[in-house]
Amino acid sequence: MKKIAALVIAVCVILLSFFLSGFEGYEYADLSLRAEYSKEYEGTSLTVYNWGEYISDGTEDSLDVNKEFEKLTGIKINYLTFESNETMYSQVKNGGVNYDIVIPSDYMIQRLLKEDMLREIDTSALSNYDLIADDYKNIYFDPENKYTVPYNVGMVGVIYNGAHIKDIEHSWSVLWDKKYKDMVLNFNNPRDAFMTAQILKGYDLNSENKAEWDSAAKLLKKGKPNLQAYVMDEVYGKMETGEASIAPYYAGDYLTMVETNPDLKFFYPEEGTNIFVDSVCILKNSKNYEAALMYINFLLEPQIATANAEYIGYASPNTAVIENENYCYYQNEILYPNEEDMPKVQYYHNIDDEIRRYYENLWIDVKLD
Amino acid sequence: MKKKSFGNRFVASPYIVWSVIFIVVPLVIMLYFALTDTNGVFTLENLANIGKYKKAFGISILYAAVATVITLLLAYPMAYFMTKLKISSQRMLMLIVMLPMWMNFLIRTYSWITILANTGLINTFLQKLGLSPVKLMYTPGAVILGMVYDFIPYMILPIYSVMSKLDKSLLEAAEDLGSNSLTKFRRVILPLTRPGIISGITMVFVPSVSTFYISQKLGGNKTMLVGDAIEYLFNLGPDYYNVASAISLILMILILICLFVMNRFSDDEDGGVII
Q: Which of A238, B161, B222, B259 is most buried as measured by Cβ atoms within 10 A of its Cβ?
């Protein structure tokens, strides 16, 4: 009898904790929208494929973009996420799912276009398209703005711990400086790790000259004894706790880290850095083109774009966000540097397969060294 | 020889089907990838290019060997000590040895980070005492420690199981015949527990030499063990499946050679030998 009672209590506790955590209802926000949204496509569905943690999803009292859109239009959103442009590519190319909308980065968009996988976006049908800042139009991968709508912008910079380091040279060379032995992190992916060495050497990030890749690899090998670790997501824990003191990472993520550890500081290296733009695209085999346009227009809504920009922490290409005084990163000098503080930037381009394999193998050499 | 009944075969069939699908077929696929290029044409190039990874093989074998020796030195006296206790205490100690194995090894490895890190438990404690912090993480020592911690139960268990079956009368006989304790250990206990030692060494060395993750988390991703190289190459995508399979194949052959050599030592008698 006692055992049964214990079992019943255990089941109750488990159920209760479910209710307290998962089933908490979402309260819809009061939307003030610029465009009109009809229920014309009610009952249809859209499959959206985006980076992880890359949309305001209702957690921590934020606005749930997908739920709001579903309520507004009756279109069902299947929302799926990826961890890298490469995973996205192989899923879209070979996966069984029929995706409508994808939000990859610049160089991957270039590849999708080269392989004729994207459908033209009729921007005249997007009443909110005029909100996109001119700086983010006509970018190299889509010079005529025919296939993409910019979603987020980011740059790589160097994060350091002000409590450990008082004065720091604003240069990539700090990653190689013996003063900071065992305090430095670097990216654990070839393209970004090579970027730090390439820029220091003054090379083009999209170089097709193998000798330049060789010499960048040599520089990375030289810096290895100085390094504490190669990391990706672990950078958060290591920088927030003060385990490491210097790490190159994305500016938007620095803003998340500094909330936990106010000692953290940030700079853009004077040699320049990498900039990326993630843009919304419609795939050629999308079966719900009109609904996809409606979704993109909804993402551009000032209120929605601001919610996303605040949730994600990256810079927005949307003027309604940039000029909104209530936006939590309004005039943030890291996300939106003045013209004179703006670093020299280079985009990644889609690199020829042979060169890509060449540098991937060099990266293995660096790791094996 | 007894003929196997239909019933016997029927009972065994789920596992046979399982092992064909999940052991034999993957091995064949690995062999296929190792011996072909990206277009599926037969080639020995993948195996010929393995030289690039010789440092990874070297470090893996070295680390695994050191870890195996340390676990043996820790586990043998531990197992001996356990057999001397009363049965209930033996059970209790056994539980303590087994307990960490009920947790996922990734979590066990991760917990070492909070202990060894520059801002971890040990260094915080040292700083509280006014001592300067020591670099514990991101070193070969940390990687080997991780291996020892993760795999030590596999050394204790087989040694303990052989040792607890040791016939006490043989030890008494040795004493009666005038052996001192060193001779008794060297001539009686050690030879009789050898099957347990051999099996323990195999069960620690094999997973250590092919391990990954431990070196990534505790070694800072800077030294690539063979397991890390294989994992990394598979993650790079289909272009690298062939090379990764070739490395896996070589690693498997090396492990089989080790097992073969170890089995030579084990007298082919009873006891805890696994393979």
A: A238
| A364 vs B: CB within 8 A | yes
Task: Find the angle CA(B55)-CA(B59)-CA(B64) to the nearest 5 degrees.
Answer: 150
| Nearest residue to B118 via CA among B230, B9, B241, B220 | B220
Interface of A with B in 223-242 (CB under 8 A): 224, 227-231, 241-242
List of domains in chain A: 45-151+278-322 (3.40.190.10), 154-275+345-368 (3.40.190.10)
The tokens describing A121, both together, are 């976006």
Architecture of domain B23-264: Orthogonal Bundle (1.10)
User: Does the model's pTM come out above 0.80?
Assistant: yes
CA distance B185 to B192: 10
Residues A318, A309 contacting (CB under 8 angstroms) = yes
Q: Are strands A246-250 and A45-51 parallel, antiparallel or unpaired?
A: unpaired
> What's the CA gap between B81 and B83, in Å, rounded?
6
Mean pLDDT, range B168-182, rounded to an integer? 88
Q: What is the mean pLDDT of chain A?
A: 92
Question: What letter would DSSP give residue B103?
Answer: S
> What is the arithmetic mean of pLDDT over A281-293?
95
Segment among A115-119, A345-349, B163-167 with least mean pLDDT: B163-167
Least Cα distance to A318 among A175, A132, A160, A180 occurs for: A132
What is residue B271's predicted lDDT score, i.e. its pLDDT? 46
- Among A228, A241, A357, whose Cβ lies nearest the Cβ of B220? A228
Give the closest of A230, A360, A368 to B221, CB-based.
A230
User: Parallel, antiparallel, or unpaired: how do β-strands A273-283 and A345-346 relate?
Assistant: parallel
The tokens of A280 are what? 């919304």
Q: Please tell me the distance in Å from A107's CA to the nearest CA on chain B.
A: 17
| Contact assessment for residue A62 and residue A27, using Cβ atoms and an 8 Å cutoff | no
